[in-house]
Amino acid sequence: VQLQASGGGLVQTGDSLRLSCAPSGGDFSRGTMGWFRQAPGKEREFVAADGRGKYYADSVKERFTISRDNAKRTVYLQMNSLRPADTAVYYCAADDRSFNTRYAHTHADTYYYWGQGTQVTVSS
After folding, report:
1. Beta partners for residue 9, in sequence order
2. How far apart are CA 34 and CA 50, in angstroms?
3. How confident is residue 1, by pLDDT bands cut at 50, 70 and 90?
4. Rounded CA gap, 103 and 76, in Å?
5. With 0-12 CB in 10 A as exposed, 13-18 as middle and 19+ as buried, what is 29?
6. CA separation for the pair 23, 121 (Å, rounded)
7. What is residue 26's predicted lDDT score, i.e. its pLDDT?
8. CA–CA distances in Å: residue 46 to residues 38, 93, 104, 110, 124
9. Whose CB has fewer CB within 10 Å in the chain, the N or C terminal residue?
10. Are 95 and 29 within 8 A, CB to CB?
11. What are the beta bridge partners of residue 94?
């Protein structure tokens, strides 16, 4: 199974982007899919996840929305009101299990499958 993330780019503060992640060779419609990001010099951090519930990092609540199109087996991350602090490589993650705790949704070590990342750069 490979996860293909796309949609990153260079935008200005306040702009929007929509990231997409589609698995090849797998179907996670009954599992959990999430987004993490890693900025230069920082550890990978949780952004959003969709399993039995939807979870968001405090820093992106009210600005980012995770959604899924199960027919296309694709997960999206709609990012609005982007800020320079959102600059990072964004990674898609997935697992066959439908997580049922906040911990599982929000920690990278619980996900089995990872995509290659897509760069998001927000200029001030």
Report:
1. 120
2. 6
3. confident
4. 21
5. middle
6. 24
7. 83
8. 9, 10, 11, 12, 23
9. C
10. no
11. 33, 113
Chain segment 26-41, per-residue pLDDT in tens = 889 899 999 999 999 9
* SS3 annotation, the chain: CEEEEECCEEEECCCCEEEEEEEECCCCCCCEEEEEEECCCCCCEEEEEECCCEEECCCCCCCEEEEEECCCCEEEEEECCCCHHHCEEEEEEEECCCCCCHHHHHCHHHCCEEECCEEEEEEC
Q: In terms of DSSP bridges, do strands 9-12 and 118-123 run parallel, antiparallel, or are they unpaired?
A: parallel
Tokens of 24: 């090849």
Record the tokens describing residue 67, joined without a space.
């959604």
